[in-house]
Amino acid sequence: MSTSNSSETDQPQGSPGFGAWWKSTLDLLRPHILERLRIVDLATPEATMEGIERDTEFRGFNLWILVFSILIASIGLNVNSTAVIIGAMLISPLMGPIMGVGLGVGVNNVGLILKSLSNLAVAVGISILASAVYFFVSPINEAGSELLARTNPTLLDVLVAFFGGITGILAGSRKERNNVIPGVAIATALMPPLCTAGYGLAHLDGGYFFGALYLFVINAILIAASTTVVVRFLRFPLVKHVDPATERRYKRYFGLGLAALLLPSAFILYNTVTASVQSNKLQGFVSNTIQHPGVEVVKREVVFEDGLPVAHVVLLGATVPGDIVAQWQAQLAQFMPHASMTIVQNDGPSGLEDLQRMVNLYAEGQTALSLRDAELVTLRGELSVLQEKGLPESLAAEILAQAPEVAKVEVANKQWTTREGASEAVPWVDVVVHEADSVGQARLEALEQQLGAWLLLRLNTDSVQLRVVER
To answer: What pairs with residue 316 in β-bridges?
Structure first.
């Protein structure tokens, strides 16, 4: 009886004991966690509002910076250079009016909203026009991957814009200055869509123009919306108070409009993910199924035709019998009913012979190229030696400048060769002194010693043949 009572007593006491420990632990950690996450009283609303309002203006320096940054980004998109595009985004002033709209909505400042929207419209118009002019005159007309990437916005771009906007307004609200805003400008990628829209306008391509413009509108609205959310959370002072009923109505309208705006991006994301899954699935089927002795898959590519995946497979080696190819097609129809596959084969052994001949020609060309490179290196070495042994062109003029009594100077490289085959090039200098100067034998010897020592240093050599004579 006592044992049973003891176990019945211990069992209910275990759960309350753990709950009390958990509650005390949370009570202990809560102040430290809240202290780490605290941002409300660290913000500077007045300075932040003043800075954002100042950045909404597009005139003077800001306007020219925008034009040049758009041209830089257009060049980067045109030549498919990610580094150039990032550099253009770093200097772009487009974030200012967008955050101004969000700030105006957050503090109920209608004047700031209208001012920011008008400046944003000017900035967008100038950006698209400048980009269109560049792409119209650019000799590179083919659209690269960087341009194509800005025509199909998805919900992932929406998330980047939203979190980027939150980061931007939080960074702008701090007392300390930092380099977060340029990073936000890169992450949200406001400029490349406008440049892509300019490309579409220059080439009259509605797909590029409207797709890129849609991406920019999504980015701009989500950045503004995230700015509004943070401004309200940080309790920035309101310019005008609105009654709760009107505010709820505005929020409802905004929510419906935002949902309508984001619906196409959700559809695009669904199609993108579906296409990626189908492509990977079809690639896996080709890798695991298309196998035959003496045959190698040299190319496999999955494309979408009329929304359905098609695998293009190129085989090299022996010809695969038709019944095996039909078996592969049947397996694909069972594995992925909506997919199809085209198989391209060579003509059998002759294809391998052609390939072997190409490989041999390539190897021979590589060998000849290596020999030519070695010969070129040798010739360059010999040229370098000759250049080192050569005498400076100004050597005679330098001697004349040092010794006014010298009338004429002759310089040359003399080649000495012995019967044993040894050879050496020695600098030779012949100096002629004016006879009228009557310098005397002592002076001639002193001049010879002076010029000899100078020539050894000047030519960086161990021996010089020098002769000083009187004319």
So the answer is: 296
* Overall pTM surpassing 0.85 (yes/no): no
* CA-closest candidate to residue 444, choices 388, 406, 414: 406
For helices 322-335 and 244-289, the axis angle rounded to 10 degrees is: 150
Lay out the sheet containing 406-417: strands in order across: 406-417, 423-433, 465-470
**Residues 6+ away with beta carbon under 8 Å from 434:** 405, 406, 407, 470, 471
Helix (H, G, I), strand (E, B) or coil at 407: strand
Q: CA distances (Å), 422 to each of 208, 419, 449, in order?
A: 75, 7, 29
Per-residue confidence in pLDDT tens, the chain, 471 aa: 444 444 444 444 444 577 777 877 777 777 777 666 666 555 677 777 887 888 888 777 888 888 888 888 888 888 888 778 777 777 778 888 888 888 888 888 888 888 989 999 998 999 999 999 998 888 877 776 666 666 666 667 777 777 777 777 776 666 555 545 555 556 557 788 888 888 889 888 888 888 888 888 888 888 888 888 888 887 788 877 777 777 777 778 777 877 887 787 777 777 778 888 888 888 888 888 888 887 777 778 888 887 788 888 888 777 888 888 888 888 888 888 888 888 887 654 445 555 666 667 677 777 888 888 888 888 777 666 656 666 777 888 888 888 888 888 888 877 777 777 677 778 888 888 876 555 577 777 788 888 888 888 887 777 888 888 877
Element (H, E) at 96: helix 95-106
Decide: 206 and 269 in contact? Cβ < 8 Å.
Answer: no
